[in-house]
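Review box. Two proteins, two foldings.
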Amino acid sequence: MKHAPEVVNAAREEGEPGVDYDPLDTVVSTQIRLARHIATHHASDVPAIDPSCERCTSDESRQMPAVLVLEHRARHVFAPPSIAGLL
């Protein structure tokens, strides 16, 4: 198990695009990776703070790291509000 991340990353680099090589992948980990990708590579596409989202408005007062705030807001692109508010 200690080497699982290295094995999965090597498979991703050598394999076909769009194939999930992580046997331990879950919906949550996929959402986290997608949100991180959007936040770091497509920041201009991240939506503005949603005033109706409790998490969006609380992130401002908690002084979260900027990338985590962007990740949460990126979830609004692909997840319903009830799910986006969880992470």
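Next protein.
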Amino acid sequence: MMKSFFTPAPAGLTPEQLTARQERERHANNSIAILMSNGPAPSPEALAIMQRHVDGEISIEEAIELTDAMLLARYRPGAGSGSTEPNHAR
């Protein structure tokens, strides 16, 4: 079984909710595995956004928008201290 980057499902979910959550978690884990095959693991901030999607708090579209905004704020010219930190994967 593949390692999961996400917290376990909370108790009390209906079978339908659990199935939907497992599907989101599977997709998110597969995405991380693909990213890590070519680079570093996602940042803790990106994983927190993905956790919100896995938990069903936000849609995948919202997760993408939040991740894009986070990366723009971090890496746009003139942002922060001008660090040359490597670009972390989503």
